[in-house]
Design goal:
The chain has 348 residues and is mainly α. The chain contains 13 helices and no strands.
């Protein structure tokens, strides 16, 4: 009897141990499944069709806001970059001359239509590509998407800049030529009389200029300056998104997420990202503007070498003042519109 009782006790103990092991195994599997589910949820957030669509629309809203806030400063920048001898007296003189000669609509806001197309196309593609590139960098660095540091986001911005260059280049070319059309006409050998230039100036608009480029240079004429655009966009967006994320990191109050920092802090972070962008790549932007406005085909290296040889290194920074002056409010408006549009669309 004692042996039978002991055997039964051992058997019951074995069953209890087996049951306990099975429960532990089930719990471990459930935890692993939850972790996998979270990772898959993060993946779908980065590359899902809905989220790409939200990024596209949010980038579009940001691009529109950026253009209307920053277009006058951009016009002054392009004029100072491409015609430094005419506007050697500085930013204020260039602004007043443009306002006096052409007014607000045809002067300070010249090229707004192609600028809208350029910014909407660039920012919609940029932010959509940025979301996908964030996921790719997260996988490559074995990091959860929500725990990416500013360097990871900067790398994602660097990669996204390549894709946005192809949508930006054609509209940027038309915009730059419209912004500098008066100076181009006055410096052409065939136009010697200011009145003749004035008559011709009034007949040139974005669509007229687009047809002119297509007829004279063909489809690939719209991609003049593509190499310099890529050389500007990729490193530029490394500093753009890196600067934005670093600023968000330091301005996020304890106990809050980066998405909860509010409108003012978001604009400040966006402005700092814009300042980082332009400070880092401005010489490349000067070269791009010269190539796109000029009637002579040039390589990036040749154009930069010519500028340094004839005008000095300082010429590569012509227009930096108005650029930094406009970029803070313009980029702040870009990120503010983007973040708020994204929040609204995510609640639908």
């Amino acid at each position: 009897m004692l042996n039978v009782t002991a055997d039964k006790d051992l058997e019951n103990l074995g069953i209890q141990q087996l049951t306990l092991l099975q429960l532990i195994k089930v719990n471990v599997i459930e935890v692993e499944d939850k972790d996998k589910g979270l990772n898959m949820e993060g993946s779908s957030k980065a590359v899902g069709g809905k989220d790409v669509f939200i990024d596209l629309l949010s980038g579009t809203a940001g691009g529109i806001a950026s253009v209307y806030v920053g277009q006058p400063g951009d016009t002054i920048k392009v004029k100072m970059q491409t015609f430094p001898r005419i506007y050697s007296k500085g930013m204020v003189n260039c602004f007043m001359e443009t306002l006096r000669n052409d007014g607000i609509r045809r002067g300070l806001y010249a090229g707004t239509a192609p600028a809208l197309i350029a910014n909407v196309a660039e920012n919609s593609i940029l932010f959509a590509a940025y979301g996908v590139c964030q996921k790719a960098v997260a996988i490559g660095c074995s990091q959860p998407l929500d725990n990416m540091n500013p360097l990871h986001n900067a790398i994602a911005g660097f990669l996204a800049g390549f894709f946005s260059s192809f949508t930006l280049c054609p509209a940027e070319l038309i915009k730059c030529r419209l912004q500098a059309v008066r100076e181009t006409l006055l410096t052409e050998a065939c136009i010697n009389i200011a009145e003749s230039a004035e008559v011709k100036l009034k007949s040139i608009g974005p669509w007229t200029l687009t047809r002119k480029v297509f007829v004279e240079e063909g489809f690939f004429g719209f991609y003049r300056g593509l190499t310099s655009t890529i050389a500007r966009e990729m490193p530029g967006y490394f500093f753009f998104f890196g600067g934005y994320e670093i600023c968000r990191h330091f301005l996020t109050p304890p106990g809050k997420r980066k998405e909860e920092i509010g409108s003012i802090r978001t604009m400040v972070c966006g402005g700092m990202g814009g300042v980082a962008f332009w400070t880092a790549i401005f010489p490349t932007d000067v070269v791009k503007s010269r190539i796109q406005v000029s009637n002579v085909k040039q390589t990036v290296i040749r154009c930069m070498t010519e500028i340094i040889r004839k005008e000095g290194v300082r010429a590569l920074y012509n227009g930096l003042g108005p650029t930094l002056f406009r970029t803070f409010p313009a980029t702040g408006a870009l990120f503010l519109a983007y973040e708020h549009t994204e929040k609204i669309l995510n609640t639908l």
